[in-house]
Amino acid sequence: MKINIQYDVLKENDMIYVHSNITRQEYNIFVEDALCIEQQGDSPIPILLYRILKDSELRRNVLKEKGRACCHVLKRDQKKVEKYLWQ
């Protein structure tokens, strides 16, 4: 999935500022997606995060979209998944 996000870059002294008109929630979703892609690497098994795993309909849709029946959990979310979903 490729999404083009418009942004501006401002260089000021030793700082670089990036500005974009996306919400905090959209930004967080992009970061989460990047973490999952990074962890998945070359594996065909998708990495899902707690937010997706806790919603059974969303989980089914994501796995169907990826053509898989199983997944791994994002390492960052492992303890939360074990505590709240795998009791």
Write up what this structure looks like.
- With 87 residues, the protein is α+β, with helices and mostly antiparallel strands.
- It is 45% helix and 18% strand.
- The longest helix has 17 residues, at 24-40.
- It has a two-stranded antiparallel sheet with strand order 1-2. A two-stranded parallel sheet has the order 3-4.
- It starts with 6 loop residues before the first strand and ends with a helix.
- The protein contains 4 helices and 4 strands, in the order ββαβααβα.
- A hairpin with a 2-residue loop joins β1 (7-12) and β2.
Produce a short descriptive summary.
The protein is an alpha+beta fold and 87 residues long.
Number of helical segments with 4 or more residues: 4
Low-confidence stretches: none
In whole angstroms, how far apart are the ends? 34 Å
- Give the biggest beta sheet: 2 strands, antiparallel
| Radius of gyration from CA coordinates | 16 Å
Q: Order of helices and strands, N to C?
A: EEHEHHEH
Strand order across the largest sheet = 1-2
Structural class computed from helices and strand pairing: alpha+beta
Q: How many β-strand runs?
A: 4
Shape annotation: elongated
Q: Mean pLDDT, nearest integer?
A: 94
Q: Percent range for helical residues?
A: 40-55%
How big a fraction of the residues is strand? Answer: 15-25%
